[in-house]
Prior knowledge:
Helix content: 40-55%
Oligomer: single chain
Mean pLDDT: 91
CATH superfamily of the largest domain: Glycogen Phosphorylase B
CATH architecture of the largest domain: 3-Layer(aba) Sandwich
Number of domains: 2
Strand content: 5-15%
Number of helices: 20
Radius of gyration: 23 Å
CATH topology of the largest domain: Rossmann fold
CATH class of the largest domain: Alpha Beta
Strand order of the largest sheet: 3-2-1-4-5-6-7
Amino acid sequence: MGDSNQKLHAIMISFPFQGHITPFVHLAIKLASKGFTITFVHTEFIHHQITKSQPHKTIEPQVFSEARKSGLDIRYTTITDGLPLEFDRSSNMKQYWDSIMQVFPTHIDEFVNNMVKSHPLSAFFLVTDTLYAWPATIAKKYNFVIVSFWTQPALIFTLYYHLDLLIKNGHFASNDNRMDTIAYIPGVKAIEPKDLTSTLQETDTTTLVHRVTFKAFEEVKKADIVICNTVEELESETISALHQKSPIYAIGPIFPPRFTKSTVGTSLRAASDCTEWLNTKPHGSVLYVAFGSLVRISEHDMAEIAHGLLLSEANFIWVLRPGTIGSDGTNILPVGFEDSIKDRGMIVPWCNQIEVLSHSAVGGFLTHCGWNSLFESIWFGVPLICFPFAYDQITNRKLVVNDWKIGINLRDEKSITRGEVGEKINLLMRGTKSDELRKEMNRVKKTLENALATDGSSEKNFKQFIKNVKELMRKRNGLSI
């Protein structure tokens, strides 16, 4: 690989879930805009889901077609995850992830081998999701530089990175985990056990999620570079401490070009258009209620949210899957609910979240606290009601409510009540508390805007990350870059 005419070529492979795919796609476009050739890899199953959701069925996600029209060198391909397309992955998650962990890497190896042979003038490097457990093996075999992309906050990365400290101090992997404040993780002043990810709060550490996480964070310590979808000013102490362990760059939030005008989505579902309805509502009067595609709300919580919306004074859009029924087969929404909300409520199966949050009528967001949703809400200055369910969502809530003070908490572990839901909706949407939240939200929004400015921290870090990749490629492969 000593040819000075070789072009830097990133092979990018995201984790096959919506919250990971979205920033990965936008990162691919940003890298391509800096002159890199990109080959973006989806599993065949994810490709099938995306193409089903697009109004015009195409052989690739529309976002890449649009990028190429702008002259970007993005190629797209698919690889089997080891299971037939018709296999029901959602109902057989263990078998699905066994295939992702054990079979999928073999197909990746075959694909990379073919890429290397068929593109002799390309100098390849890998950009893969941190949660994959195979990148270091592939990178070593082909002498690739490996970039690990962490799509969640740096706080969660460092908690997993220091699992040994949590275990040593009895806060994790114990039959009776300690419940006192954790104040020994580098770069983390203090965190309560209730604010750890759900994975770190469980006592059974033999689950599939635990196995994936443990293996991934053994592997990430072999990565050449880690990039993180966060903002340095929002997690400065954590990022600074991680720098002592590994080259890590806070380059977030990873948004698409022309973000506020973007209509080209990356969603796995077809979206409803809410604009016409929103245009009829007063400024800041609408609460947007939406939870992630993997979130499973209990019958009790669903019913209490519905009653709480009725009790509140807010207009609302509720993203609710079709056929929402209870375990006994009956509709769990209140009798006459849809008739009662005709003047002030809209129920849709899915929507373009950016279009909704950017609309002037939207003044609040009841969310599960997915990381992408939080950044989108901040960008458009929409304060939050936090209703986390599992995984990173719980720790994300801690950042929103305790650290940044741009949202209010709906629950910790206790069950929610309709009275509490209605009360907190009204608290978020109007009055003194609402004014305080909006003031803090404007401050955090300004931090994001500054980070993404030409001389902002995220842009500077992105440039340094690219420089670091080129230096490593030059040293490892003898390139004149």
